[in-house]
Amino acid sequence: MAGNNAVAYKSPGKVEVIDIDYPTFELKDGPGVNPANVGRKVPHGVILKTVATNICGSDQHMVRGRTTAPPDLVLGHEITGEVVETGPDVEFLQVGDLVSVPFNIACGRCRNCKERKTGICLNVNPDRPGSAYGYVDMGGWVGGQANYVLVPYADFNCLKFPDKDQALEKIMDLTMLSDIFPTGFHGAVTAGVGVGSTVYVAGAGPVGLAAATGALLLGAAVVIVGDMNADRLKQAASFGCETVDLTQGGPAEQIEQILGEPLVDCGVDAVGFEAKGHGAGASEAPATVLNSLMDITAAGGALGIPGLYVTGDPGGVDEAAKKGSLSLSLGTGWAKSLSFTTGQCPVMKYNRQLMMAILHDRVSIAKNVNAKAISLEDAPRGYAEFDSGAASKYVLNPNGYIKN
Ligand SMILES: NC(=O)c1ccc[n+]([C@@H]2O[C@H](COP(=O)([O-])OP(=O)(O)OC[C@H]3O[C@@H](n4cnc5c(N)ncnc54)[C@H](O)[C@@H]3O)[C@@H](O)[C@H]2O)c1
Ligand SMILES: [Zn+2]
Ligand SMILES: [Zn+2]
Description:
The chain is α/β, with parallel strands linked by helices. It has 15 helices and 18 strands. Helix 6 packs across helix 7.
């Protein structure tokens, strides 16, 4: 049986490549596996040989020790792979198919899945609605930053690429379909972006850059990206975004310089609960982004909030933050009739359309997020560089499929 190397969380700041079991069609006990999921049969699953699997800001929350993730939890929810085995209940996928896997695990049978709310499937995580591979409190499905990974409810979850050779040529773009491209796009859609919109995206990490890309694809007139990281702002400017340097203070004044007023139609939070305050050297202030988006989004507008907020944060700045409570100026949002969309992106709502946009050269998501392929063994370096603010999206290449 083939060996299976995987990237595991060890302790705050540390990931390591470890040897794990080759998957079978059963969820076995292991670090972070919910007891109620141990022994769960997965005849509807496929085993994938991983083609590409990306490091995400969501992984970093765990790796920074900001969650209750246990040591040896195998990471990786952004998975693209080749089917090497199909369970007995799989009908429509075949060995050799190349597929993108939404990071949400969804059963395809529950009320929420039937309503395309696959980010809050009711049947895959015994703790709460919603699940993902390789993530704390998500049921314990083993992560895909590995040579091989099990994907449950595979007929429902997998998006098959129409042509294998073409897919491998565009793999650095297509690998973004498992999370950040749909997630950023969802942020833009739920912020109400359409033709002619003015948009502010907080955060120039990969999700922010994907949201900006999504906003441009949706026809926004002006997309402004704010961050305190100069390299990441340069990356945003490289594909036509305006930028706001938040080391100089809040975004309103700089937005006014760009648009003639300190207001945008649409606001996107691509930062989440580890947000820093505005101004040079500001420390963590978890409500900063939400409060400033309420200030600068025009009355009647909408906030798309893909940035992650948690129910518990061992490293929270104060007692309230440790329980996931933030000091929000909700009155501002209420007075302006703003609407809010939070939560996991239901990837399946968007991944096929965005795949078509990639395959037909309508969008260059890999270039916009500065995607970089590295080997699985190099994952610890990738995590460290990404954590230090590199303006790159790291794509792991565990089985050598990626040639460029
Ligand atoms: N909802 C979903 O389905 C989903 C999916 C993927 C990622 N996420 C979340 O999206 C967020 C972004 O992910 P990422 O991979 O781009 O992470 P990242 O950590 O690389 O990027 C976050 C960026 O925000 C910047 N930042 C910090 N404070 C800021 C502020 N006040 N204003 C503007 N920028 C600020 C940081 O400098 C950094 O560049 C994370 O919270 C991640 O967990 C959510
Ligand atoms: Zn992700
Ligand atoms: Zn479901």
